[in-house]
Design a protein that fits this description.
By secondary structure, the chain is mostly beta strands. It has two helices and 20 strands. The chain has helices at about 40-90, 185-190, and strands at about 10, 20-25, 30, 90-105, 115-125, 125-135, 140-150, 160-175, 175-185, 215-220, 230-235, 260-265, 270-280, 285-300, 300-310, 320-330, 335-345, 355-370, 370-380, 390-400. The N and C termini lie far apart (about 90 Å).
């Protein structure tokens, strides 16, 4: 048998029944004793080679398993990314505002059964809604909102726990936005933050008209111009066929009842001028016109606000009203606020109803970013007292939670 290169040892098989042997480089044979290899050095070398080959295979298997895991993880993330993106276009939000309050009523002897005081738990425009925005292209998107008032203290009998608020859908881009639905008019939105008792008993809607959430509204809002100027134009469609009668005349067009406003929002100053034309609280009223001017200004820890409003019907109704408000931030958690308003325009959105005045003093305390406790005292009276418009005195404490 030919010898192998120096230093190399090779195992060969012998005929059946022959004893296995090793042949070294010198040509000498070494026979195993009792069927075992006598050259242990060679056995260790082969064992190490086998171990090395197994380790290589094990390492390759581990790398393959790791690649498979990474592939599966990437696939799982891709699968989860679609719901995550969809969720970003859907936001659930809400607010619960409740008060426990005492209200003292005086009808001016017009209805003795309605005089006296009453304790009540009251929900103040608590709400629940969903909203979102879906990107279409660079700088262009669709948006929506659906919001309902939730009465968190009255859910039975004649009361219903849900009532629609702002609900609409629209498109938004560099040229502004357009919205269709049921929405607050530009004149109502022009109040900004001047009403410090919004949604409470001291809300300006008690003595002013114009707080309208109109159905069948089509609204356009411009983008900000010169850093803070915005124009808003809305048409309130009356949706009636002109049958040649006074009740249907001029109520079939696209601009029969309108609401417009121009607003300026600076770092400390807010100004707004708004007008409703040919409608009162969303209902067609030919030649009716409501004009509102609003200003608020932040001066250190104070916010000063004022509102002036004038309403006329083109005939013999020509009245106005005003409101002043001041808020003082004692610190980041406590605010004291005072508001007084008086108006000859009327209350509850009724043109010709007698005017009134109201004064409210309140305190807000933040427990957390979205949690607040508050208290207020207020007096409200009308020029002509009745069971519908009594003189009222309020004392209340409340809790508000936003989410």
């Amino acid at each position: 048998m030919q010898s192998q290169p120096a230093g190399d040892e090779v195992f060969r098989s012998t005929p059946l029944l022959a004893e296995p042997c090793w042949q070294g480089s010198d040509g000498n044979k070494t026979v195993a004793n009792n069927g075992r290899f006598s050259n242990r050095t060679t056995a260790r070398s082969n064992s190490q080679a086998v171990d090395k080959q197994q380790n290589t295979l094990t390492q390759e298997n581990e790398e393959f398993v790791m690649k498979m895991r990474l592939t599966l993880l990437a696939a799982a993330m891709a699968t989860l990314s679609a719901p995550t993106f969809a969720a970003s276009a859907l936001e659930l939000y809400g607010k619960l505002n409740v008060t426990v309050q005492n209200t003292d009523l005086d009808t001016g002897d017009t209805d003795a059964n309605a005089d006296g005081d009453v304790w009540e738990a009251k929900s103040n425009a608590s709400r629940l809604g969903v909203k979102g925005e879906l990107g279409i292209d660079d700088g262009f998107s669709a948006f929506y909102q659906a919001e309902w008032e939730v009465d968190s203290t009255e859910t039975g009998g004649a009361s219903t726990p849900f009532k629609s608020r702002n609900i609409g859908v629209g498109l938004r881009g560099r040229a502004g936005q357009i919205l269709v639905g049921r929405w607050d008019t530009p004149l109502k939105l022009a109040q900004g933050k001047v009403d410090l008792f919004n949604d409470l008993d001291g809300d300006i809607k008690a003595i002013f008209t114009g707080e309208t959430r109109a159905s069948n509204i089509v609204s356009y809002s411009s983008p900000k111009i010169a850093g803070g100027l915005v124009f808003n134009v809305s048409s309130i469609l009356q949706e009636k066929v002109d049958a040649g009668t006074p009740s249907t005349e001029n109520q079939d067009g696209p601009l029969d009842a309108t609401s417009i406003s121009v607003e300026w929002q600076g770092s400390n100053l807010f100004l707004a001028l708004a007008m409703d034309q040919d409608h009162n609280t969303g209902t067609y009223a030919e030649d009716s016109k409501t004009t509102r001017l609003v200003a608020t200004y932040k001066l250190g820890d104070f916010q000063l606000g004022g509102l002036y409003q004038k309403q006329e019907d083109g005939a013999d109704f020509d009245e106005d009203g005003m409101l002043l408000s001041v808020a003082y931030n004692v610190n980041e958690d406590n605010t004291i606020k005072l508001q007084h308003g008086e108006s000859d325009i009327g209350s509850k959105g009724q043109i010709g109803a007698e005017g009134g005045e109201q004064t409210f003093l309140g305190w807000d305390h933040k427990l957390a970013k979205n949690i607040m406790v508050f208290a207020f005292y207020g007096e409200q009276t009308f020029d002509v007292l009745s069971a519908t418009y009594p003189e009222k005195t309020f004392l209340a404490g409340g809790l508000e939670v936003k989410f």
